[in-house]
Amino acid sequence: MLYPIFDYLDSVLDVPGAGVFRYISFRAGMAAVLSLIVTITFGHRIIDWIRSKQIGETVRDLGLEGQKEKKGTPTMGGLMIMAAILIPTLLLADLQNIYIQLLLITTVWLGGIGFLDDYIKVFKKNKEGLAGRFKIVGQIGIGIIVGATLYFHEDVVIRDFQTPVSIEQGVVETPVYQDVKVAKTTIPFVKNNELNYEVLLGFLGEAMTPVLYIFVVIFIITAVSNGANITDGIDGLAAGTSAIIGLTIAIFAYISGNAIFSQYLNVMYIPNSGELVIFASAFIGACVGFLWYNAYPAQVFMGDTGSLMLGGVIAVLALTLRKELLIPLMCGIFLVENVSVILQVSYFKYTKKKYGEGRRILLMSPLHHHYQKKNIPEAKIVTRFWIVGILLAVMTLATLKLR
Questions:
Q1: Alpha carbons 153 and 147: distance in angstroms, whole number
Q2: Of 342 and 74, the one with more pLDDT
Q3: How many CA within 13 A on the CB side of residue 172?
Q4: Rounded CA gap, 172 and 347, in Å?
């Protein structure tokens, strides 16, 4: 909302200092600070409001140490994260940018699904929450919107440079380029690191390419949002991990939106993607600010309102930057948590059918509960997971210089 105002002040009225609002780095810093202010300053008021409505966590007895003490802790804290993302983005980002519009829709859409799930659990006293099939339908719905928009919208392009960007005596030379409408993505760890989705279905004809692409988008959004949801099991784990991933994505967004850096680091240049740095900065600030109240021992839980939304937003950010094939590495914590549940359930069913008695690979799934069962303190588990998340982020960023 402020972006067009300051643009008018600078370009039309020539007000001194108004031009600073054009700089992505300035608005990104402001977005991070504002999101921190929203969560930390107003967080306790939101928690008090949630407590006054008796919106407390209903805890199933899983036999974990310290679990019963968490009963009654305010939940639906994901509303804090949503507010801390939406307010800075609406104020500081260019709302005409198609990528920003997609991220805003994703935030509200998946946050709304999570809110319904929490509402049923808390107010309807139904521990199962929203039926799984309705969650899947909602995730498929946003996947179709995101996939169709990224594939068909005329503003979603990549820039193909016929001549390289260069700087001579402090002046950037204008290169020869062409904006191309193509369904390409980045392949990590290979020299020629671009994959065209049309190649995968070339034998079926071009008409099938959008179908494949939208299916891939649906799968990625569903997998990552569910991964974040599963990871949200102990204090600070999901929020801290998401902040680390958000920082990684912010770096990619800044490079992908800069013609010089993108060419030097062999990253696909995506026009107008630099605006995503503002959203990613608000995302990071919201996660870090939420940790102020969610770090062990937690004063509030994000609930599905926050976890489904965080995972979905991360997935869409990766898709818009054409880095979705980096998700298994970048979101390795979410992946391992997801896989641990799948393996545990599958092995239990298999052994029950074969031996008449279900057996388990882990003491309990997802993985963080396995370590809790081994009597490792909750805070230590979270810290170790964060360390692994940082290492995965460094490995992800290391792909930048691979040519």
A1: 10
A2: 342
A3: 9
A4: 59
